[in-house]
Structures are given as C-alpha cells and as structure tokens.
Design a protein that fits this description.
Elements (H helix, E strand, L loop, with lengths): L2 E2 L1 H11 L7 E8 L5 E8 L7 E5 L2 E5 L4 H4 L3 E7 L2 E7 L5 E2 L5 E3 L1
Parallel strand pairs: 1-6, 2-5
Antiparallel strand pairs: 2-3, 3-9, 4-5, 6-7, 8-9
Length: 106
C-alpha cells in the first residue's frame, strides 16, 4: 500500500510520541491544492472506521479508506534542508503534480 522511508517513519514516530501514544498519523487525499488534489496528514488517537492501518518501525499510519486507491504504491519521505522540512510524496498514480509536491491530479 504505502511505503515509508526510514526518515518518514522516524519523523512520524517523533511527531506522534507524546501527542497520541497509542495513535498515529491519518493520511487522506482531499480536493485542493494547485493540481486539484492534495495530501492531508493529521495526528489521531486511533484509526477511524474503515481506515487501513500501515505500520513501519515505530510509526503507524491510518489510511482513509476512500483515499486508499489514490495512495496505492505511494512512497512517503521526510526531508530536511535549507528551504525547510516536510513530507514528500512519490505517487505513481499521479498524472501531474505541482512544483511544491503537495498536490497532484490523477
């Protein structure tokens, strides 16, 4: 389903840490962004109804069921640099993506 790089798994575990010790990060796709669809990530205490649970190391992802098809095969990385830090998505389902990498279209 979704692959987390080592950096992404460590970042998720660090962010969730004391905020939701038994929880994880929920990931979904919603309308918006410059290319029409955007990724949404939020810390959650537990999976929602129908969420698909993905674990990698100490990180737990809750994948929104209605977004699962668009997230199939996605690799999530976490990068840090002079221009900022954040999650980067490589989505084989995207037919186009904006320059910032935060939105895409299928």
């Amino acid at each position: 389903m979704i692959t987390l790089t080592e950096n992404a798994a460590k970042a998720i575990a660090r962010f969730v840490g004391g905020n939701a010790p038994q929880g994880g990060v929920r990931i979904a796709v919603e309308n918006g962004g410059c290319s029409g669809l955007q990724y949404k990530m939020s810390i959650q205490n537990a999976a929602g109804d129908g969420d698909i649970i993905v674990t990698s190391g100490d990180a737990t992802l809750f994948v929104e069921a209605t977004s699962a098809e668009m997230l199939e095969g996605v690799t999530v990385d976490f990068v840090e640099g002079l221009e900022g830090s954040g999650f980067k998505f490589q989505n084989p389902n995207a037919s186009a993506a904006c320059g910032c990498g935060k939105s895409f279209s299928c």
